[in-house]
Specification:
This protein is α/β, with parallel strands linked by helices. It has two domains: 2-154, 2-Layer Sandwich (Nucleotidyltransferase, domain 5), CATH 3.30.420; 203-385, Nucleotidyltransferase, domain 5, CATH 3.30.420. The chain has 15 helices and 14 strands. The longest helix is centred in the C-terminal third of the chain and has 25 residues, at 302-326. The two termini are 14 Å apart.
Length: 405
């Protein structure tokens, strides 16, 4: 089965093609036979597409005003030139899309219909930087591949079984009945990581209390018991919870009322400030990239140091919330860009939990391999670094869905 995966971000479009043979999914994620990425922010004048297949890597400049045509151009590299891996686009059996927000309508991967597209569109106000790009990808596939099966894999699905005490906000209940509730995000990553954690440790997933730390430009934690997410830090939108690269995370809501009343800020300006000008970038005044922050800290930049200190403080506080929800912790998992690569973030995060018997091995932490236990032998809590494989997780959902059809 040939499975094309489209993973649209706020300013990017990643894609890959998997070929799965045999009657079972492989134990470990295989390498895609073709990979592509479009970065719409690569340059002020153009987007940049990078293609990798057959040992060949190519870069192509794109017109940012013609995004749909650019996705079609990306797909053409599957069957033409040095990156050709299929004879015709109709060889693709199914296309899987990561969709950030599925609301309360979808709790599992779903074949895309007009109704599903309408739901994704209706939820744009809750995921304004992502859901439009998902629709863009779906539309591009319809135009290029015709009636090929398309499946939406929702980031919110993994958190859909959260108990009401975690999902309902303490505001008038009628708003919950109208869909204002905590949904949670990064579900595809959290789900993959807990399943991988159980395999690494050789234990049943149902026996483990796991806290997963998905730390990238966007960041969230999940408390997982019996393989089910029972609490998470993101909520109604991906803005709630931890301090992030450019997002504020949770703040006193009265701040927004004050800014509107006393400084005349409108909703669009507040949305821009909270989503694009806050977090690490807002405090440092320069960058939302953790690599920049840690380098600037070493050079004595006080604002960068403050940004880092707030980031770690919030991690400690939010891990504490997840810990209380679980009633204990067997495994702490770090994943995504910062979680997998930042030695100092992992070290400083773990320091405050030594009272639980959680002990990080500082030597293992310096350069951990992929999917590695970095705790000491006598640590009562295992600490893992897991390489998240969202694209493969989406492909697996598609494979299972197609085999059930």
């Amino acid at each position: 089965m040939k499975i094309l995966v489209l993973n649209a971000g706020s300013s990017s479009q990643k894609s890959c093609l998997y070929e799965i043979t045999g009657e079972k999914l492989p134990e470990n994620p295989p390498k895609p036979i073709w990979e592509a990425a479009i970065d719409w922010t690569a340059n002020d004048d153009y987007g940049l597409m990078e293609i990798a297949a057959n040992g060949i890597e190519k870069k192509i400049k794109l017109n940012p005003e013609k995004r749909l045509e650019s996705i079609a151009k990306m797909l053409e590299t599957l069957r033409q030139g040095e990156t050709k891996v299929i004879d015709k686009l109709s060889d693709i059996d199914v296309v899987g899309h990561r969709v950030v927000h599925g609301g309360s309508d979808y709790s599992e991967a779903t074949f895309i219909t007009d109704k599903v597209k309408a739901t994704i569109k209706n939820l744009i106000p809750l995921a304004p930087t992502h859901n439009p790009n998902h629709l863009e990808g779906i539309e591009a596939i319809e135009k290029t591949l015709g009636n090929v099966a398309q499946i939406a894999v929702f980031d919110t699905a993994f958190h859909s079984k959260m108990p009401k005490k975690a999902a309902v906000y303490p505001i008038p209940y009628e708003w919950f009945e109208k869909g204002i509730r905590r949904y949670g995000f990064h579900g595809t990553s959290h789900k993959y990581c807990v399943q991988k954690t159980a395999k690494i440790l050789g234990k049943p997933l149902e026996s483990l209390r796991i806290i997963t730390c998905h730390l990238g430009n966007g960041a969230s934690l999940a408390a997982v018991r019996n393989g089910i997410s029972i609490n998470t830090t993101m909520g109604f939108t991906p803005l709630e919870g931890l301090m992030m690269g450019t997002r504020s995370g949770s703040i006193d809501p009265a701040i927004l009322i004050y800014l509107m009343r006393e400084h005349g800020l409108d909703t669009e300006k507040l949305n821009t400030i909270l989503n694009k000008e806050s977090g690490l970038k807002g405090i440092s005044g320069k960058s939302g990239d953790m690599r920049y922050i840690t380098t600037a800290m070493q050079e004595g930049d006080e604002r960068a140091q403050l940004a880092f200190d707030i980031y770690i403080h919030q991690l400690h506080c939010c891990i504490g919330k997840m810990l209380a929800s679980l009633g204990g912790m067997d495994v702490l998992v770090f994943t995504a860009g910062i979680g997998e690569r930042s030695v100092i973030v992992r070290e400083k995060t773990c320091e405050n939990f030594e009272f639980l018997g959680l002990k990080i091995d500082k030597e293992k932490n310096i350069k951990p391999g992929i999917d590695t236990d970095i705790s000491t032998s006598d640590s009562t809590v295992r600490i893992l670094v897991v390489h998240t494989e969202e694209d493969w997780a989406i492909a697996c959902e598609c494979w299972q869905k197609m085999n059930q059809a």
